Amino acid sequence: MAVELDVFVGNTTIMDEEVYQLWLDGHTVNDAVKVRMEGGVLEEFEASADVLLSDTMDQYRTFQMCERLLHSPAKLANQLLFQIPPHRQAILIERYYAFDDAFVREVLGKKLSKGTKKDLDDISAKTSVTLKSCRRQFDNFKRVFKVVEELKGPLVENIRQHFLLSDKLARDYAAIVFFANNRFETGKRKLQYLTFQDFAFCAGLLINNWTVGAIDNMVEDMDVDLDKEFLQELKELKILITDKDLLDQHKSLVCTALRGKTKAFNEMEANFKNLSRGLVNIAAKLTNTKDVRDFFIDLVEKFIEPCRSDRWTAADMRLYLTHYTNSAHILDTFKHQVVWDRYMGVIKSCIFKMYHD
User: Source organism's superkingdom (predicted)?
Assistant: First the structure.
């Protein structure tokens, strides 16, 4: 009996985006086949289960062969083994380096070392992200960190150029690298309400304002390390709380500006000195590595929690910090306006992001 076959020959590598995502998510071939069958692919293409299994296995093999190229994305464009159109290459790279917010939240601020990698079993169980996917994401974080930590120039741009990522994903990776380098504490119970995107927003502010690169954009490690000279200058702000006349004058200016504008005025007036001491002491201690690590926990404990217990709204917080910052410019004997603005500009925006009323 004669069998007729329709054969199509081409050199463009066929990649199904759904199968690619199943592979990235760490599913086995059999699991992927099951998901595809449940999605109605057999009916759609009038194919048999054997053909579907063969197609899935073939695509998994292709992805595994492409993986080494994805570790250095620029190589994907220059190789001849796989004929992949540029727009499809961009999708492969972006999805390979994408990550689960639940996973990154567990490793954010930790050292990207073998010690942390040993914890991936527990993180996988906690987040319901497959172990294989956890390993891929962790290895991606570590790979990006190693490539960019010694480069000159802006961190986000270096990541974007070397790994061909979108601007948004490059900024997220910059936050991961920055947190890993400075080892910010993010795992304490009091910080659990904060999402990765909350921290990434703050990381962007710190990178753009408190690193050496905020002043000179072609120095070594510019966007990874905090500006030590600036951290030393922050000690000068202590005069705002150690000089009693200055403290009283600052309080008077802020309270005059706030009176009649908020229901929380009495609490703001009563707690002004404690809140000011909290913010200024955070600044003065940032020359110590441990206090840098505790930056976010200190913001929550010294400022956000007291305001929350007094039932401040987000609008109250914005009003208070705006007048608190601006009033320092009117203080006659306060001579550290530039450092103050560089510090409070970041602090204000971080607190606005972190204060969920």
Answer: Eukaryota
Cα separation, 290 vs 298, whole angstroms: 11
Token look-up 């904060």 returns 194
Task: Enumerate residues 6+ apart whose C-beta is below 8 A from 114.
Answer: none
User: Whole-angstrom Cα distance, residue 106 to residue 123?
Assistant: 7
Contact 179, 186 (CB under 8 A): yes
What count of Cα atoms within 13 Å lies in the side-chain half-sphere of residue 186?
Answer: 26
* Dist. CA 78–CA 82, nearest whole Å: 10
Structural domains in the chain plus CATH codes: 17-96 (no CATH), 101-188 (no CATH), 228-354 (1.10.490)
User: Helix or strand or coil: residue 206?
Assistant: helix
Backbone angles phi, psi at 12, to 5 degrees: -85, 125
Tens-digit pLDDT profile for residues 179-192: 999 999 999 999 99
Decide: residue 82, CB within 10 A, 0-12 exposed, 13-18 middle, 19+ buried.
Answer: middle
103 within 8 A of 123, measured Cβ to Cβ = yes
d(CA 197, CA 203): 10
Phi, psi for residue 211 in degrees, rounded to 5: -90, 170
Whether residue 101 contacts residue 127, with contact meaning beta carbons closer than 8 Å, is answered with no
- Hey, what are 262's tokens? 């908020």
Chain segment 64-79, per-residue pLDDT in tens = 999 999 999 999 888 8
pTM: 0.90
CA–CA separation, 236 vs 242, rounded Å? 11
User: How many C-beta atoms lie closer than 10 Å to residue 19's C-beta?
Assistant: 23
Query: Which residue pairs from 131-135 have beta carbons closer than 8 angstroms and sit at least 24 positions apart in sequence?
Result: 131/26, 132/26, 133/24, 133/25, 133/26, 133/100, 133/103, 134/26, 134/103
Per-residue pLDDT tens digits for 240-249: 999 999 999 9
Question: How many residues in total does the chain contain?
Answer: 357
